[in-house]
């Protein structure tokens, strides 16, 4: 399930970048285990994060970038290595929205309701 979800999210991210390039705004709702968060992005590097449902009363976010490179590994098989850099961590109280500006293109996010998320696995 995680692999297929990541594939969908990767596809969604690619589609989102195409729409952003055309000047459209993107709105994404993430729901998992009864917890819910909304993300709205625009082409100017601004995103709004809204905590919709959380038993702890907060949504904890980590925003990060990833750089990956592939080289020849054991037995001549390609091996990919990724480096992740956290660019921001913050919490949003339940029912509120927080805007983040000057975000790099292609940033990724993790959200947890009970603790700070661990990048890149998001604590799962």
The low-confidence runs, each spanning 5 or more residues with pLDDT under 50, are: 1-25
Element-level helix/strand string: HEEEEEEE
Give the N-to-C terminal Cα separation.
Answer: 12 Å
Q: Find the count of extended strands (DSSP E, 2+ residues).
A: 7
- The global form is elongated
How much strand? Answer: over 45%
Describe the structure.
The radius of gyration is 16 Å and the shape is elongated. Residues 1-25 have low confidence and may be disordered. The strands form two sheets. The chain has a four-stranded antiparallel sheet. The chain is 16% helix and 49% strand. The two termini are 12 Å apart. The chain has one helix at residues 2-21; strands at 26-32, 35-41, 47-53, 58-72, 78-93, 97-100, 108-112.
């Amino acid at each position: 399930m995680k692999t297929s979800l990541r594939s969908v999210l990767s596809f969604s991210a690619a589609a989102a970048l195409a729409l952003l390039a055309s000047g459209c705004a993107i709105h994404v709702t993430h729901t998992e285990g009864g917890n819910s968060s909304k993300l709205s992005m625009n082409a100017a590097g601004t995103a709004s994060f809204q905590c919709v449902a959380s038993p702890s009363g907060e949504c904890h976010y980590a925003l990060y970038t990833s750089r990956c490179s592939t080289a020849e590994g054991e037995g001549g098989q390609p091996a990919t290595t990724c480096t992740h850099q956290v660019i921001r961590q913050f919490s949003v109280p339940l029912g509120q929205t927080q805007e983040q500006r000057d975000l790099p293109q292609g940033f990724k996010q993790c959200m947890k309701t009970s603790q700070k998320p661990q990048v890149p696995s998001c604590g799962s």
